[in-house]
Amino acid sequence: MKSFRSILHLFITFIILLITKSYSQFTSLSPDCSSAVQTFLNSSEFNACFPYNKLSSQFNHVVFRNFTTNEKDIINAEDSICSLPKCSDSLISNFNSTFQSKCSADIAKNSPDALGVSILIYAYSPARDSICFKNSTGGYCLVEIGENIVNNLMPGSSFTNLSSKVLCTDCVKSIANTCLKYIKSHPLPANLALVFGSTTNITDYLNQTCGASFL
Ligand SMILES: *[C@@H]1O[C@H](CO)[C@@H](O)[C@H](O)[C@H]1NC(C)=O
Ligand SMILES: *[C@@H]1O[C@H](CO)[C@@H](O)[C@H](O)[C@H]1NC(C)=O
Ligand SMILES: *[C@@H]1O[C@H](CO)[C@@H](O)[C@H](O)[C@H]1NC(C)=O
Ligand SMILES: *[C@@H]1O[C@H](CO)[C@@H](O)[C@H](O)[C@H]1NC(C)=O
Ligand SMILES: *[C@@H]1O[C@H](CO)[C@@H](O)[C@H](O)[C@H]1NC(C)=O
Ligand SMILES: *[C@@H]1O[C@H](CO)[C@@H](O)[C@H](O)[C@H]1NC(C)=O
Ligand SMILES: *[C@@H]1O[C@H](CO)[C@@H](O)[C@H](O)[C@H]1NC(C)=O
Q1: Most buried among 80, 137, 185, 206, using CB within 10 Å?
Q2: Where is the DUF7729 domain (predicted)?
């Protein structure tokens, strides 16, 4: 199931990007673009609503291996992110305007870092919501999902046959609905659609697996 993987991939990419990108790693961007991106990420406005500087220093030496090894790091990152108010749409959209104007050549080239920044801009809002959803016992949903997958995905198997026990939970429901609603009202830009694939599949798949009231 390419599409379920792609939604998970969206979040995992987002979190890993946010917590591992240190300033020096944006070096594949052209100088003007790189400096505009770094200025924003380091700005007090952004850091008041997203702990970018804190995370990038805290996680500078963390190596991401697998979910189980890094569960505590992920929880720490979620705590830092969710303790701040969510960034306003206008802050993100102003950054988008700067990014589009300073980085047009990088965007046209589809450089990996430009794609990474595009993902941050596009996915910020639903990802921030999803990162902070909690379950009925107060644990982070993303962590619950990770634990369920680790406990249910046999070595060598794929997302295709994750059981309904893993998929049809309140946590997956909240995240899936948040994301699908967002994607519906904000169509994926063409360059990101290539990365994440179609969302028709995931809608059909969840509908079939979890029932028509899930979405
Ligand atoms: C980030 O901002 C602080 C001041 O807020 C400044 O001292 C520091 O040099 C900046 N770092 C980079 C990499 O721009
Ligand atoms: C995760 O990493 C740890 C140590 O790095 C290893 O012991 C464990 O088997 C890994 N788990 C999976 C599912 O790969
Ligand atoms: C960023 O700007 C581009 C170009 O104007 C636009 O197509 C895109 O939808 C914007 N992205 C977001 C998340 O606002
Ligand atoms: C809630 O999430 C945590 C992980 O964040 C998990 O360990 C716990 O089992 C979940 N609770 C329920 C009722 O699923
Ligand atoms: C799960 O998926 C894997 C690979 O896609 C397949 O080999 C395996 O037979 C499937 N298991 C079940 C129980 O469907
Ligand atoms: C689902 O995705 C597969 C490959 O990703 C594609 O071949 C298939 O046409 C898609 N189905 C629907 C209903 O979009
Ligand atoms: C879910 O499936 C049912 C029956 O197959 C269909 O009538 C319904 O429109 C589907 N819902 C969505 C949201 O795709």
Answers
A1: 206
A2: 25-214
